[in-house]
Amino acid sequence: MIRAFVALPLPVTLRQRLxxxxxxxHLPRPAVRPVPPENLHLTLAFVGEQPAPLVEDxxxxxxxxxxxxxDLTLRGVSAFGGRTPRSxxxxxxxxxxxxxxxxxxxxxxxxxxxxxxxxxxxxHVTLARLDWRRLDEADRTRLLRGIVDQDGFRAxxxxxxxFALYRSHLGREGPHYDELARYGxxxxxx
Length: 190
Ligand code: 2AM
Known about the structure:
Blueprint (H helix, E strand, L loop, with lengths): L1 E8 L2 H13 L7 E3 L6 E10 L1 H13 L5 E11 L6 E6 L3 H16 L12 E7 L6 H13 L4 E7 L1 E8 L6 E9 L6
Antiparallel strand pairs: 1-3, 1-8, 2-6, 4-5, 4-7, 5-6, 8-9
Adenosine-2'-monophosphate (2AM) binds next to strand 3.
């Protein structure tokens, strides 16, 4: 079985800005686990644990997918999880080409018999995952204040010239991602 997902690898300019934001946020370990720079990505679709031949079929469907390169701008920092936040992420400026690409990836999954999650697509880049219950009051306050302080964050636009299929290995030190294949987008300058 292969645990897989489809995502945008991020241009180095965006990755550097995200690392800067991580360094400005209060992310006390071990309750908070910042995403290592090499793991920063924007998920288009989570594929989950699947038999290798099915992931191979998905790879061929993604190879056949045609979509345009586009500019991506990151904007704002916030948390998922409501009153008990479970992750901190950078947001993304609304982008129709990004939404179109994500729909095409879901269609490719459909074509090969994978059942993609139909949750509303909320594009984001996870910066840290956390266990809220393990944070004391002072750390909670500093973390939330940091998020509010970073709300003006903006990075880009940067060209997205490709998307990729990843394998995720879950380890005790956190997940490790291997890029299985990269798919170029049409009209990319880079
Ligand atoms: P996240 O960034 O919002 O946590 C690899 O695990 C990627 O797939 C992560 O970026 C994660 O998104 C996303 N993902 C979506 N649904 C998931 C699920 N049910 N389990 C694990 N990861 C999931």
